[in-house]
Write a structure and sequence with these properties.
The complex is a heterodimer of chains A (137) and B (274). Chain A is mainly alpha-helical and 137 residues long. Chain A has helices at residues 7-14, 71-79, 88-101, 107-113, 125-135, and strands at residues 33-36, 39-42, 56-57. In chain A, 36% of the residues lie in helices and 7% in strands. A 3-stranded antiparallel sheet of chain A has the order 2-1-3, covered by helices on one side. In chain A, helix 2 (71-79) packs across helix 5 (125-135) and helix 3 (88-101) packs parallel to helix 5. Chain B has 3 domains: 7-53, Uridine Diphospho-n-acetylenolpyruvylglucosamine Reductase, domain 2, CATH 3.30.43; 59-173, Uridine Diphospho-n-acetylenolpyruvylglucosamine Reductase, domain 3; 179-271, Enolase-like, domain 1 (2-Layer Sandwich). Chain B has helices at residues 14-24, 37-42, 78-82, 85-90, 92-99, 104-109, 112-117, 124-131, 149-152, 221-228, 233-237, 254-271, and strands at 7-10, 28-31, 50-53, 63-66, 69-73, 135-140, 143-148, 153-155, 158-159, 166-173, 179-185, 195-202, 205-211, 218-219. In chain B, helix 5 runs antiparallel to helix 8. Chain B is globular and about 55 Å long. Classes of the chains: A mainly alpha (137), B alpha+beta (274). The interface between A and B is medium-sized, with 29 and 28 residues.
Chain lengths: 137, 274
Amino acid sequence: MEPRTLLVQYIRESAGLTGTNIGCDTSSCGACTVHLNGESVKSCTVLAAQVDGMEITTIEGLAQADGTLHPMQQAFHECHALQCGYCTPGMVMACASLVEENQNLTENEVREGLEGNLCRCTGYHNIVKAVLEVSGA
Amino acid sequence: MIPANFDYLRVDSVEGALNALQEHGDEAKLIAGGHSLLPLMKFRLSAPAYLVDINRLDDLKYVREENSHLVIGALTRHSDIETNPLIKENAGLLASATHHVGDPQVRHRGTIGGAIAHGDPASDIPSALLALNATVVVTGPEGAREIPIDDFFVGFLETDLKDDEMLTQIKVPCVPDAKWSFQKFNRRAQDWAIVGASILVNNGQSGISLVNMHSTPFRASAVEEAIASGANAVEASEQAAIGTEPTSDINASVEYRKHLARVLVKRGLEEAGL
């Protein structure tokens, strides 16, 4: 692997996991969000070499092995928190990390916490609803 | 977008990083969180031959209180600074400014040392550190030296760091009783500041600085002097654009930036109870 390989490139092209999307490629849109040692990061702005030996979770690894959805995936499903779906993998990963760090989010905190993820379809409303569903507020 | 090719070196100590810098000179660049450097490299605005990864220097990740100062390791991530109880209590302005950087994903990666070493006048963190009168500690082959934050930023994206030195620590005086405000004006949540202001008022002393109003992070000395002579928020904020040389771009003209500086300083001073 060349040292300049980006994490998102490695995930999509070497590991063959294409659930993680590339959107803006400039760490603005959040489509490429994955978890690095449990925390959300934008994989277009991390080198694959930098995370050697660390734990990466992509959208493919969020559900349990038997297919049971992660609570955030379930909430997105129930709240209809998506339309075209392009931002969804990154959005779900960002939301899961947000709730992991704070279990009692207010609506305002959810909206602020999603400042790094762009959605062109939903107007965010149902996404916020899904996060609040999981965070129990 | 893929960066130009480079050799990747991972080091596990300050000594290792300094050795790499000494060996490769200005062909080498340290990478911490990488959220300033990697975008530059992807745009091919920067193409270092050697990238020295310092992310695993865990002994540079800490926040401690020593002799009425907060002592912060250069590799402490933004997300750890914005939530740190010691920082919230003793330098709330720094926690607030850090919370305004980028978005949660960016703050999980970005580091305080990287944000300062990049020397970007549009960055939120240098402004808070100016207002707080911080000191930057850099380590080189001869050992460590301390640089007052006012002397650290020497030009656009240029700092006093030498090619063979690395930024290792930031010292911030504890000001638990200070009133402060961080003001940031932008059009979209995660954007850089079109203009920003750090305001700190403590027992008649003040620290006032501006984001994106000059080629370097900028101390608004004229406002500080006005406050020292007893000016109120309205009077003092009228001095906010004095000495600034902002640029004109798609977001704002020079005149509009100067207007914003006055408005944001006024809001900040009022929020800080002046």
